[in-house]
Amino acid sequence: MLNWEAHACLPLHPQADFSPLDRLRAAGVNYVSVNVGMDMNPVSQILAVLAAFRANIAAHADRFRLVSSVPEIRAAAKAGVLAVGFDLEGAMPLLEQPDMVALYRDLGVRQIHLAYNRNNSVADGCHDVERGLTPLGLRTVKAVNDAGLLMDCSHTGRRCSLEIMAASSRPVIFSHANPLALVEHGRNISDEQIKACAATGGVVCVSGVSAFLGTRTPTADDVARHAAYVAGLVGVQHVGIGLDISFRQDELNDNPPGDYDPAYWWPKAAGYNRAVERMTYTPVETWRLLPEALQKTGMSAAEAAAVMGDNMLHVAGQVWHRPAA
After folding, report:
1. Which helix (H) or strand (E) holds 88?
2. CA geometry: angle at 9 spanning 24 and 141, to 5°?
3. Which stretch of DSSP H or E encloses residue 38?
4. What contacts 236, CB < 8 A, 6 or more positions away?
5. For 4-319, CATH number?
6. By its UniProt entry, which InterPro entries does this protein fall under (predicted)?
7. What pLDDT, in 10s, does the model give residues 113-156?
8. Kind of pairing, strands 82-89 and 109-113?
9. How many helices (H) and strands (E) does the chain have?
10. What is the rounded CA–CA span in Å between residue 19 and residue 23?
11. Among 79, 138, 155, 193, which one has the highest count of C-beta atoms within 10 angstroms of its own C-beta?
12. Does the structure show a pLDDT above 90 at 49?
């Protein structure tokens, strides 16, 4: 059994401390997708972060390993090191050039979604006016498929996500999303979206963020309840875990430079209070509690293992067909 954390956040700063990743490894995580930028972050910031994160991983080969394939994840687990990939949250870092997707892949990015909460020239965010996938968006989906990245629909508008899933030639994931049927929040996804994701052969990875779980003090049992709902709707083979823990380091200012308005990206009208400052997260140790929590919902030990990693390993094996340079 290998445990797959589909989304985690370090400060978007070259001096970010990587010790939280050691905590994930100690909790039993074998692979983690680390965010390296969102739609509000300029390319200059994202490239600086990528360079620093890559250098940090290379300098600590006894703890971390940048990977591009499932066999490499298995080899890292056997060696006792944490396998790491990167993800982008939004298409604005592509500068409206679909060819940029392959460039980011070669720098270690393994998954991408096309809009972060707000609309851009490619796709719709979940907290904005619905328009649907744009013509540029269609070309970008093809570029993501061709480059062998995981196509992620987290933070994406409902109509737009359905159009992305219809356009994708490969399985699509939600790396950190929860069922709208359990908690009414614009970031959560409808049964229609969950079923469409499963129809692509994809996986919905349940988030551990308080607002999306509907509690101020989220636990492994809360995550398991949401995972069980998705499993009941589309089958356990389409469920994963993306706790979306944000490892804040108060001494580092990782805000985008220039005119940055958090209230735009996390609008109060959508249910946020002071942007994301009041968000709480399941603790890292949730990973150790999840097997029992998932089995309490009625899953077998094998089904719990599938949710915790095997399902995402299967999808990655289908999508990651091109190694990094």
Report:
1. strand 82-89
2. 115
3. strand 31-38
4. 299, 303, 306, 307, 311
5. 3.20.20.140
6. Metal_Hydrolase, Pept_M19
7. 999 999 999 999 999 999 999 999 999 999 999 999 999 999 99
8. parallel
9. 13, 10
10. 7
11. 155
12. yes
Tokens of 235: 């089958």
Q: What tokens does 90 get? A: 């939004």
Helix (H) or strand (E) holding 35: strand 31-38
Residues 118 and 265: beta-carbon distance below 8 Å: yes
Separation CA 228–CA 225 (nearest Å): 5
Give the bridge partners for 64, in sequence order: 82
- Adjacent-strand bridge partners of 9: 246
3-class SS of residue 189: strand
Residue 194 corresponds to which tokens in the numbers above?
A: 């969950």
Strand partners, 35: 87
Distance, in Å, from the CA atom of 96 to the CA atom of 135, rounded to the nearest integer, reads 11
- C-alpha radius of gyration, the chain, whole number: 18
One-letter identity of residue 220: A
Q: Among the residues of the chain, which ranges form H helices?
A: 19-26, 43-59, 70-79, 100-106, 135-147, 158-167, 191-199, 210-213, 220-234, 262-265, 286-296, 301-305, 311-319
Q: Is pLDDT of 67 > 50?
A: yes
Q: Residue 159 carries which side chain, given as an amino acid letter?
A: R
Q: What percent of the chain has pLDDT over 90?
A: 93
Instruction: Determine the length of the chain.
Output: 325
* pLDDT, mean over the chain: 96
**pLDDT tens sequence across 84-107:** 999 999 999 999 999 999 999 999
Lookup result for tokens 């992620």: 152
Q: Which residue has 């636990």 as its token pair? A: 219
Among residues 242, 182, 172, the alpha carbon closest in space to that of 209 is found at 242
Residue 325 reports pLDDT greater than 60: no
Closest CA to 255 of 44, 41, 7, 35: 41
Instruction: Give bridge partners of residue 109 from the DSSP assignment.
Output: 86
Q: 14: number of CA atoms within 13 Å, CB side?
A: 7
